[in-house]
Specification:
Blueprint (H helix, E strand, L loop, with lengths): L1 E4 L2 E10 L4 H11 L5 E12 L1 H16 L3 E6 L1 H10 L7 E2 L2 H21 L1
Parallel strand pairs: 2-3, 3-4, 4-5
Antiparallel strand pairs: 1-2
InterPro entries: STAS_dom, STAS_dom_sf
Protein name: STAS domain-containing protein
Amino acid sequence: MRRLAASRLAIAVIGDIDAGNGRELGRFVEQHTGISRQLVLDLRAVDFAGTQAFTAIYYISVHCARNDVDWILVGSHPVRRLLSICDPDGELPLADDLTSALERLTRTARCHQHVRSAV
């Protein structure tokens, strides 16, 4: 876990996400996004993504939506393969690489600022 800015957090996962740790990943993200408005979930170093990985990612998505946290994920080949099956319409915010993920979050933050200043 690394704080990239005052309101932006990056959480990186290494290894496998499966039935043994998927729930813990969701809870970890939930516990650490309290003051963050943006989250980068870096799954580039995930070697295996079981079905519990999708459950964890979906849980994170719901948590972020409910708590007004803009988020994006960057995934390894196993994560992308899982999402192609479980999220065929591409509704989850998946970026090709870390640079594009950060750029998308920056654009989102600018849009939020523009909307707030217009109100």
